[in-house]
Specification:
9 strands, mainly alpha, two-stranded parallel ribbon
Length: 502
Amino acid sequence: MTDKLSFTPGQLTLEQLQAIHADGVRLQLDAGARAAIRASAQVVQRAAQGSEPVYGVNKLDTLQLNLIRSHSVGVGEPLQPSVARLMLALKAASLARGHSGVREEVVDTLLAVHNAGLVPYVPSQGSVGASGDLAPLAHMTLALLGEGEMLVDGKRRPAAAALKEAGIAPLKLAAKEGLALINGTQTSTALALHALLSFEPVLEAALVVGALTVDAARGSDGPFDPRIHALRGQPGQIDVAQYYRALLAGSAIRRSHLTGDDRVQDPYSLRCQPQVVGACLDQLRHAALVLLREANAVTDNPLVFPEDGMLISGGNFHAEPVALAADAMAVAIAEVGAIAERRIAMLIDASVSRLPPFLCADAGLNSGFMIAHVTAAALASENKSLAHPASVDSLPTSANQEDHVSMATFAARRLQAMIHNTAHILGIELLAAAQGIEFLRPLTSSAALEEVHALLRRHSAAMMSDRYLAPEIERATALVTDGSLARILRTLPALPKLWIPA
C-alpha cells in the first residue's frame, strides 16, 4: 500500500470504501478529529472515577479484557482479508467520531494494524447482528491485544508475533474500550459492502451478456426505446434501457431482421430486461446509500455526548438497517441470475430462438448446451433458497435481554454464495450467446458486442461438437467477475454511473 487516504470520520465516501476494500491505501485520520476523541475519552474517565454506576464504564481493566476473551467464540471459515480490512477501517472511523469514549490509542492501533497489512483472524459465524457483531469484533479486538491470531500469507499465526514484527504495541484496554470495540455493526456492514462491491462488475457483465443474447436470438431493440421507460419513470429501468441501446447500436444482425420478421414480440427475458434488471439496480442503489450511512455511523453503546458530559444507553448496535439492505440485495442478485437462466433456456430452445437445437450443429449426435443450461438452472434454484430474507428470523439471546435480533451478519455473509452462482449463470450465458452469434455469421453485432465476442474467443473457441466444457465455463465466469466485461461497458460514451455515491 503506497497511496494515503486521509479520511474525516462520518464523511467516508463509497469510492474511499472501495479503495479500502481493494487494499490500495494507507489510512490516515484527519487531524481535526482528534479533539473530539479526546473530549469523549475524558467524559468516560471522569465517569469511571465516580461512584455512580454507568453501564460499560465502571469496570476494571481486567474485566474489559475478560469481555473480549469471553466473546471470542466464533466458528467457521475466517472472514476474507478484504472484509477484515473494512472492519478495521469502519471501527476506527466510528470510534473517531468522538462519541464512544475511547482513547486515541485505540483508533491509532486499528489504523496501524490496517496499514501494516495485518489481517485479524475472524471466524465468520457467530453473530446475530443485534448487540453489535459481538463475536467477530471480539476476535478482531483479541488480535489487537496480542492474544488472538492473524492471517499471514493465508496461514494462522499468533497475533503477538505478527504485531511485534510490524512494530505495533499490543493494545491495552481502559474503561469502556472493550465494550466500544465489540459493540457495533462493522462486521455485517463490511460483509454487505464486500458483496455490493463484488457484485458491481457482475451486474455490469449481466447487461453486456444480456445484450449479446438479444442479438444472438435476433431480438428487437424496440423495447429499449427511451419513450417507453420515461412513461414509467423508474430511474434504474431508464438507465438500463440506455445501456442496452448503447450496447446494441450499429448491429448488422439487428438491421437484418427489421423487415420480414414474422415474430410480433420477444420473450420477457429479452424485452423486459430494463424492467427487471433496472428494478434490481434501484434496490442495489438504495442498499448502497444505507450501507454508506452505516459505514459512517456510531453504533456502539452507551454513547458519549461530550458537550454536556452525558453517557446515554441506546440501541444503535441493532443491525436491522443492514439486514434489510442485505435482504434486498439478495433478491436483486437472485433476480439477475434468474432472468439470465431464462435467456439461456430460450437460446437452446429452437422453437423460440430459431437457432439450432441446444446450439449445436448436429443435435442428434451432440448435446451442445443442454446440460450447461441444467447447471444454470441448478444455480438459479439455489439462489431462490438463499434469497429467503434473513431479517424475518429472530432468536432471542442473552437470557431474553436481546429479545429481537437482526441476523444481519448472515444476511450479508450469504450474499457471496449468491454472487458466485449468478456469475456462473452469466458465464454460461456468455458462452451460449457467443455460440448463437456463430450461427448468424457473416452478420456482425455492434462494435461493443463484437469486442465481447472476440474477448471470449481468446479463451473459448466456438463449440461445433461436444467437448469438455467445465473449464471454459470457469474462464467465461472469470470475465464476468474480474471486470473484463464491465470495462467494455464503461468505454461506451455518456452512460449513467451504476452506483450512486452519496
